[in-house]
Every structure is written in structure tokens, then in C-alpha cells.
Specification:
Blueprint lengths: L34 E2 L10 E2 L7
Antiparallel strand pairs: 1-2
Length: about 55
């Protein structure tokens, strides 16, 4: 499946270009995302825990 044919999550943008779920148009191709961490107190302490680094 080419990147252009992958489904993307509507309304979700991604700047993590080294993630396997990152599409060329800065959208996410994961089936769903999880944002963490449970002890976050502000936005600078959150992260997408669905991130998987490209080989």
C-alpha cells in the first residue's frame, strides 16, 4: 500500500516526520491515537504515545 492510499485520521495533523504513521501531507495514518502522559499538567508534558519510529 502506498502512502497516498493510506487512510488518515480526520482533523489530526502530525509533525513527527520520523514516525511510521506520518503521511507526506502531515496527517496521521494510524488506526487511532493515544495522547499521554497520565501525569501531564500542561500541553508541553503531553506526547503521542502511538509514535513508532521509522527504520
Amino acid at each position: 500500500m502506498t502512502e497516498q492510499n493510506k487512510n488518515t485520521i480526520s482533523g489530526v495533523t502530525c509533525d513527527a516526520k520520523n514516525c511510521i504513521h506520518h503521511a507526506a501531507d502531515d496527517r496521521c495514518t494510524a488506526n487511532g491515537i493515544k495522547v499521554g502522559y497520565c501525569s501531564s499538567c500542561n500541553c508541553s508534558e503531553t506526547a503521542c504515545t502511538t509514535f513508532r519510529q521509522k527504520d
